[in-house]
Specification:
Blueprint (H helix, E strand, L loop, with lengths): L1 H11 L18 H7 L2 H44 L14 H19 L4 E9 L5 E12 L3 E3 L1 H11 L2 H21 L6 E6 L9 H11 L7 E6 L8 H12 L3 E7 L5 H7 L4 E4 L1 H5 L5 H17 L2 E5 L4 H9 L4 E3 L9 H10 L5
Parallel strand pairs: 2-4, 4-5, 5-6, 6-7, 7-8, 8-9
Antiparallel strand pairs: 1-2, 1-9, 2-3
Helix pairs in contact: 1-3, 2-3, 3-4, 4-5, 6-7, 7-8
């Protein structure tokens, strides 16, 4: 309506002459205006109308984009919740109907492209002895920065990688890159830390996994004892013979084995019997409640006594407050990992933190 009114008054006021020539609709813009009016004023009117139409339409485009972004954020939030609570799920994320499934499949495709283009990266979180303040180890943590979403939580993209079937390729890259970084630090004089890297339970289905891990270690000429493989206890680790043999083979190479999220599953104590465990990492829910829950404190105390009797190192993750650190130390745990000391860091910042050390409790 606006463009019609503008065009009407342009003719009525004599700005452009009345059209006396029939112009085919396929005639290019500007050319058609000139031909219809017999004057450059016809083309100028077309340009003016295009600009006005753009300005009228633009707010509606912005409103639609905003509504779409709000909807995407809501669905993405649902997806993050679903990825953090996959136990007992009837369908994988990528198999689910509707928008959650569509976004999951799109992210899985983007993740595969990022793996091929080597766009994933590692950060390293210090593990600190609270008695000495010395960094005794670091955990290599995989990170993915999506081009449009930004950082995607590992709980989501690792789940997608496991579903789609390229967790083995991704996990092997993590092992190789953490070995490379460890070699670099050793060459720079950092010789008294252990590098931990995560192994997905899905990777334990690969009978060649010990050989692949050994290949990474050999590639960089490392002593296997400076590397530690972490397996998460809450993600389907089984005490069956298959997992046991693979972990035994990894341990026989000289690589230490750590059980993550210990105390969360129903078979935690069975793992200590079945697997060659050198370290257990307390489940974060126990650590977070240690100052407010006597039950959590009693469980941690029992685990600490058990570790001491079995010569197993005990580490507490998600240590965020001084109160937690003091309570954990009193319960016999003194190796901490968490934001009280440091977030996960890029390699150069982590190296500086290792050399600097931290305070004691």
């Amino acid at each position: 309506m606006v463009l019609t009114v503008i065009s009407y008054y342009a003719v009525a006021l004599g700005i452009i002459p009345e059209s006396t020539v029939e112009v085919a609709w396929t005639t290019p813009v500007l050319v058609s205006g000139y031909a219809a009016a017999g004057s450059v004023a016809g083309g100028a009117l077309q340009l003016f109308n295009l600009a006005v139409g753009f300005l009228i339409y633009l707010p509606f485009v912005r409103a639609a984009e905003k509504a779409q972004q709000i909807r995407f954020e809501a669905v993405y939030s649902e997806l993050l919740d679903a990825s953090g609570n996959m136990e007992g799920a009837t369908a994988n994320l990528t198999d689910r109907p509707g928008e959650i499934g569509a976004i999951s499949r799109a992210l899985a495709s983007d993740l595969l492209d990022s793996i091929k283009k080597k766009e994933l990266f590692l950060e390293y979180q210090p593990q600190v002895d609270c008695i000495t303040g010395k960094v005794v180890g670091v955990e290599a943590l995989l990170r993915w920065r999506h081009a449009s979403i930004g950082r995607v939580p590992p709980s989501l993209f690792v789940t997608l990688a496991e579903e789609v079937g390229f967790i083995g390729e991704m996990g092997l890259w993590v092992c190789d890159e953490s070995c490379r970084q460890m070699k670099e630090w050793l060459d720079r004089g950092i010789t008294d830390i252990v590098m931990s890297f995560n192994v997905s339970v899905k990777q334990l289905g690969d009978p060649d996994l010990p050989e692949k891990i050994g290949g990474c270690i050999k590639k960089y000429g490392l002593d296997p004892s400076c590397m530690k493989a972490e397996v998460t206890e809450s993600t389907g680790l089984s005490s069956d013979m298959g997992h046991n043999i693979l972990l035994q083979d990894i341990r026989h190479m000289g690589v230490n084995i750590a059980i993550d999220d210990f105390g969360m599953g129903h078979s935690s104590l069975v793992y200590l019997k079945q697997f060659p465990v050198a370290m257990i990492k307390l489940d974060g829910s126990l650590v977070k409640d240690v100052t407010v829950s006597k039950i959590s404190s009693d469980i941690i105390s029992s685990i600490s006594d058990l570790c001491r009797s079995m010569d197993i190192e005990l580490l507490a993750e998600f240590v965020e407050t001084e109160g937690q650190a003091v309570a954990l130390k009193s319960l016999g745990c003194h190796v901490f990992q968490g934001w009280l000391y440091s977030r996960s860091l890029p390699p150069d910042e982590c190296e500086a933190a290792i050399r600097r050390g931290f305070g004691t409790y």
